[in-house]
Amino acid sequence: MTAADQPHNLPSAEAAAITELLATAKTIAVVGLSSKAYRASHSVSEYLQSLGYRIIPVNPNESEVLGEKAYARVEDVPEKIDIVDIFRRSENVPEVVDGAIRAGARAVWMQESVVHEAAAARARAAGLFVVMDRCIAKELYKRRK
Q1: In 3D, which of 92, 74, 91 has the Cα closest to residue 83?
Q2: In whole angstroms, what separates CA 35 from the centre of its chain?
Q3: Rg (alpha carbons) of the chain, rounded to whole number
Q4: Is this model's pTM higher than 0.85 or not?
Q5: Considering Cα of 48, then 49, then 53, then 56, what sign does the dihedral take?
Q6: How many other C-beta atoms lie within 10 A of the C-beta of residue 72?
Q7: Strand stretches in the chain, DSSP E
Q8: Which residues are CB-contacts of 18 (< 8 A; sequence separation ≥ 6)?
Q9: β-pairing verdict for 68-69 and 129-131
Q10: How far is CA 140 from CA 21, 39, 62, 77, 134, in A?
Q11: Which end of the chain is more exposed for a tag (fewer CB within 10 A), N or C?
C-alpha cells in the first residue's frame, strides 16, 4: 500500500493503528446518539450495527435507540467499551473523555468537525487511542472496499 492508498491519506502508522482498532473493536458507545433517523449519529450507528458492532447509546435524553438501552453517561455503561464515538460539540469533549477514561475504554473517536487537543492529550496520557475529526463510518467503508 502506497501513501496515496492510505485511508484518508493518513500517515501509514496511524492508518494501520485505526485499521487494527476497527478490526478488533466489538462494542462502541455512541455519545450523542439520537433516536431521530435524520441525525448523523443515528445513520452512522445503524451502519455500525449492520457490520456487527454492538452499539451502546449514551444520551441522557433517550431511553432506547436502535433496540439498545441508552445510558446518561459513558461511565454508567455496565460493560466493557472498546470505542467511545463522540457526536457532540467540541466544547463537550472533555467531560466525555473523562468518562471514557473512568470507564476503561480502549479508544476515543471524535467525529468530523469534533476536535479538542487538550482532551485528546489527556486521553492519550491515560493510555487511550485517539482519533479526531474523522467519521468512523467513512473510515470503515474505505477499509471494506
Answers
A1: 74
A2: 17
A3: 14
A4: yes
A5: positive
A6: 12
A7: 27-31, 54-58, 64-65, 68-69, 83-86, 107-110, 129-131
A8: 7, 10, 131, 139
A9: unpaired
A10: 11, 19, 26, 24, 11
A11: C
Smallest CA-to-CA distance from 32 within 129, 118, 113, 143 is with 113
Name the DSSP class of 143: H
pLDDT of residue 4: 38
pLDDT, one tens digit for every residue, the chain (145 residues)? 333 344 456 678 989 999 999 999 999 999 999 999 999 999 999 999 999 999 999 999 999 999 999 999 999 999 999 999 999 999 999 999 999 999 999 999 999 999 999 999 999 999 999 999 999 999 999 988 6
Amino acid at the residue 81: I
Residue 17, SS3? Answer: helix
